[in-house]
Amino acid sequence: MSNTVIVRRCEEYDREAIGAILKQGMEMLQYRPSGKVFVKPNVVFAFRSEIFGGNAFTAPPFVGACLSTLAAAPKVDRVDMGENCAVGMPTRLNYKHAGYYEEVKNVRSHAPTPVGIFCMDEVLRDSVFVGGNVHDNLRISRKMARADSKVYLPKLKGHCVSNMTGAVKLNIGICSDDERAIRHDFLLNEKIVDLLTPGYPDFIAMDAIDVGVGNEAFPSPRKLGLILMGDNPLAVDLIGSRLLGCGPENVPYLKLAIERGYTPGAIGDVDLVGDITTIEALDKHAERIHPYDDEFHRWQDVNKELDRLKSPLRFYFGPYRHQPPKKCQTGCVMGVKMFLGSMEKFAGAEAFAKANPVVMVVGRIDETIDAKGADVFLIGSCAKASVVNARKIKHFDKCFTTASDLNLGMAHKLGMPSVTTNLSTMLPIVGGMAAASFMKLINGRYFQDISHFMTKHLERRV
């Protein structure tokens, strides 16, 4: 581990050029992969790119170049790539729409060692010790837990609650849905830092050729033309945050990691090498993704976006507790942002202006809300409000409430086209879920989970 971050210019997704850059980066950082190598890309969402866009995941040529480079290393026995996508979407469906299966097939055709791809939500898990503030133990995929080396391929993007997502936050995807939901609330950043214990990569290659701005699941692409490499996730993310115009003080999980003692603690402690070697040159290059306009911060402020869309939807956001008053920025409100961001992509901006005047509430609201005959949705276990003149009140008594929960339980009430009411989008999702369930059965994952519940979870509850 070092504080060195290699910054290389790369304007296009050219596999040969990317492969050469990655090979040089591994040599400079003295990373010599051997044995079984686990590779973790960023695939939070990849579905119907003609509707939702195709910039939320690590680009397939970038992934393919890395897999080929690793497979060609002299002491590597096999390479396995795994991911668990956003809650509610089967990973195998995201892989298909991202083009990963085809990419891996192409790599296999010339790789001297076996290259595999698997869905973390479908395979057996091993329990690993964490000893953190949120997790004492965590069950991660067996292929990751037993790997000799870990390589992370984050996509540099903005984020609706963390301002950025990079190498450190990539660890959310090592959790299966049952443990991913644990403390995905006001303790999310504590959880993310905990995950550095089982998920500390040996080599990082960040896809910053086209970065994503706005909502992380449906970002707008902007050309930056860079590849970042390192063996310290904090160092890589410090440089990434600078490129996105925010320092660690504005990225909650980076700030917390530094407070817990992870280093480097400041961007000045990072050693820049490669094509950009100074912070001044880094800032100059970052101007390529300016301006920091409304698109850059899309769906970070829900009411601002509803005003932009001239929508009759109303959103109230209060604290989850009163003493001291504090809002949860990383739980249900994140689900709302993801849900509404997906609705804009699917239904279009014009549909928001014609939507039903639905009221959404996250947290505790002291003022009396006049629903004016509209449906009211209390989102999250802590949601509470005095409501009058409501047609109907529904409470999502869940912490946290996901975008998938809102799609299934609320989308049909908005009077807008939605994924859940469209057969062409729902059928592939349902088919992907069915296939994932079948693979869980075949792989013995269901039996393993039942055994864990009977021997561990029930005992703990008693």
TrEMBL record:
InterPro entries: DUF362. Residues 37-241 form the DUF362 domain. Pfam families: DUF362. It comes from the Bacteria. This is Uncharacterized conserved protein, DUF362 family. The lineage of its organism: Bacteria, Pseudomonadati, Thermodesulfobacteriota, Desulfobacteria, Desulfobacterales.
